[in-house]
Amino acid sequence: MATSHSYDYDLIVLGAGSGGVRAARISATHGAKVCVVEADRPGGTCVIRGCVPKKLLVYGASFAAEKEDAAGFGWQVGDSYHDFASLIASKDAEIARLEKIYRNLLAQAGASLIEGYGRLKSAHEVEVAGKVISAERILIATGGTPQMIDVPGMNEFAITSDEALDLKTLPETVVIYGSGYIALEFAGIFNGFGAETHLVYRGELPLRGFDEDVRTHIATALEERGIILHSGHTIKSITKTDNVCSVTLDNGEIIECTQIMAATGRVPNVSHLGLEHVGVAQQKNGAIIVDEHSASSVESIYAVGDVTDRINLTPVAIAEGHAFADSMFGQNIRTISHDNVASAVFSQPPIASVGLSEQAAAQKYGTLDIYESQFRAMKNTLSGRAEKTYMKLVVEAGTQIVRGVHMMGPDSAEIMQGMAIAVKMGAKKADFDAVIGIHPTAAEEFVTMRTKRNS
Predict the structure, then answer these.
(1) Which domain holds residue 140?
(2) Hey, which residues are catalytic here?
(3) What is the pTM of this model?
(4) pLDDT band at 358 (very low <50, low <70, confident <90, very high)
């Protein structure tokens, strides 16, 4: 593919995260001349400051519960301690390795990388590091950024998930403000390493938007793990004296801690892009409005990933970026489906789901058949841990199509990937019933549920 004589490139990608890198690589292999602009480290949120480092810390923190459970299986575990700084150093080394891989992937595909902040100058021009470059098409893939709620002292004294991943020492006491997946995941991390962990959120239950039964069960499990929940409350102010933060709640309660973390959601990372300068339409939260082909309101400008606020998951961004590249440069116009995308929360215990919650399914399909199972995992019978696994099938009554699958418990994310295939294919409850389970596993419960819930 020959580049137009009036442009420097066929495609400029703003952002070297998962979606941007996939779009750049595939576009380049289709023959396009591609440039990627990135102000930070290639790899984006997921690789550098999100999914990957967070999951490594989750693995590390989970050993605390494994150690507690070991005695029930005859292991006599002596005194031990955790070297938090050593874990962070190991995590940093792994992230550096992955960053090099991302740089190499772009180079091997023939895409150029320019380091610096890119800002739109026109529908075909980007200014970066004082230089203006042009392209026939521009793809925005700048992801999201942590949101900081306007509370006195929050901006001065709180960290976000970005900084939490780089702490060199473990705080003694942590207050986390929020109840979304990031809040729950970091609550499990800090608690697992031994920090006194408080979770403050204004709702009755954590994880707004998830299935109500799952929300209820995870609240119980978090408390059983030792996390202190302050449901139905907000933070009114934060002050700091020496190394201690005083967090004042709306009921007047004061929590003293050595670290406060804001985990009240993420917003599209668009503040310095100059979108308003070229007329790109946005939602109220700043998200770029796109159609099913990831095209914005400006003909030559496209966007994928979290910056569009469709489904903010790394695999979705990758799929959107790949479809964009195939459509624009691969002579294969296609879109992706955002229906029935499986997801997981790597809390402790973890949660996973695919399809609709019971509440959303009832609103869309009416009468439902609900199947659920709650049980103490076999491992816990000897370990002495009282924690229970919870599993649920949401079935449309008329068609018997499984519209939602939900689980809280060990290995839920691994199990849900297989469930996602069944839901994506439109499996019915009878299809689940026809499967012979693998015994003894937790996963077999999904194919042995036979009794409908009464209400």
Answers:
(1) 9-145+267-329
(2) 439
(3) 0.95
(4) very high
